[in-house]
Design a protein that fits this description.
Elements (H helix, E strand, L loop, with lengths): L1 H22 L3 E5 L4 E5 H26 L1 H30 L2 H14 L7 H12 L3 H13 L4 H15 L2 H14 L4 H13 L3 H13 L5 H19 L4 H14 L4 H13 L3 H14 L3 H8 L7 H14 L4 H13 L3 H14 L3 H14 L3 H13 L5 E4 L2 E3 L16 E3 L13 H9 L18 E5 L2 E7 L69
Antiparallel strand pairs: 1-2, 3-4, 3-5, 6-7
Helix pairs in contact: 3-4, 3-5, 4-5, 5-6, 6-7, 7-8, 8-9, 9-10, 10-11, 11-12, 11-13, 12-13, 13-14, 14-15, 15-17, 16-17, 17-18, 17-19, 18-19, 18-21, 19-20
Length: 547
Amino acid sequence: MIRLFIFAVVTLGLGWSFSWLAERPGLISITWQNHLIETSIMVAATAMVALIFAVMFVWWLIQTIWTSPHSVRRYFRARKRDRGYQALSTGMIAAGSGNALLARKMSARARGLLRADQEPLIQLLEAQTALIEGRYEEAREKFEKMAEDPETRELGLRGLYMEARRLGANEAARQYAETAVEHAPYLPWAAEATLEYRCQSGRWEDAIRLLDQQKIANVIDRKQADRWKAVLLTARATERLEGDPKGARDDATAALKLAKDLVPAGIIAARAHMREDNLRKAASVLESLWKIAPHPQVAETYVRARSGDSASDRLKRAEKLEALKPNNPESLLAVAQAALDTKNFARAREKAEAALRMAPRESAYLLLADIEESETGDQGRIRHWMAQALRAPRDAAWVADGVVSERWLPMSPVTGRLDAFEWKQPFGQLEGPIEEGTLAAESAIASLPPVHKTAPTPAREPVVAVTSSPAAAEPTVTPSPSPLAPVPSVEKLKPVDTPSLAPKAQAEDPIKGGQTAPDPFNGRPPDDPGVKDQNAQPEPATRLRIF
């Protein structure tokens, strides 16, 4: 564009100059060696311009002839380089697609057309070709050579890191990632890997420092960096809670400023305040967190903030949570549990059923079962709620990469991913039909069986048998064999003879003459008071009466 503009300006200038000369005619006389040369100004100007163009053309021609050998060499060199880059491009595509034969062929052609010291991608192509052909030692040597060159250091370190991860050499992979971060902290893969290893080893200070460097270098999004820093601060506060409550409080408070909805940070901050006997500040932190994210662990920490509180005091705290977040299942369940502790079964049942209608789940049914057990003790109603709990959706838990944890962790134990745990319902925890929705809750409440009332069992007097014997002046009293045995009525009591006290049926024994001796214990333990000696002779009983 600039050249076109300059050409237009020059052309317009020449045209204006010739028109100006044409309007002002004149003669030019030149005397040279006794010769007089006269011409007009227009002809002289035209001759001068032509002479200038002729000189420029001759100069260009001489320069072209003089530099033609170099131009020819440069042409062939450029053609060879283009062929080399074409082979390199084809080889990289073949290596990426897994075509080892074509990749090796293009690698050899590119090395023949290009110089490896001038084009480092040839070493990368050779390393990738060795990898897809299974020659891992050769590939590792190529990556080590690339790591020694400042121009390809980052590429070589990444190749060595990936090979170490493939072999399971985590320590070597960590060292390669650390080296890459030292030379290039802006590399996402190196920073992420280094951050992961530092978190796994509990080096929270180094992890936070590296995260700040990435944030300054704009490697990580600002919002994501703040979230990860809050997670790291919470993890450090968890470790410092026992030995350094003040430090844990500062870390957890800083984490809450970066991520206001981070439940573990709020709980750690509240517990740190409790260890410093600052219950008012702990309650304020939990109340602020409860307004943003109602969580059962927040409710439990708030309700049981003071160990010496009575059940009624805990109920008041739960009611305060309900006032802060009304019409919320977590609030209703917290009040129901606190009311159950105070033996206020009507209020506990009301709140639990309200929570069940809003969000049917396992914990609500189990809480109703506890209420039934404490209030009525009716096994039928208890089993009814337990059966509903088996078919209800599972309660939410801390889940990360398919792992369910009872407590929050800063990173996944499977993949090492930071901030992986989420509070959500586990998937596939139990097999079986799952009933969801408010209709299932209404049906469960409506189908609750009535309380089974049983009449009190009257006290029974012991049954004794009085027998008289000619050898004994005192009567013999025999207690009933079992207190659970049915008591015969008075109408059925009749005088019995002595043979009626012996067993009526006797089993045959194929070894001893076809019959066995009667069982002296009559199916009762030998130490039973009603068992008589086998060799003792039965005494005749004259009468059986009830006293």
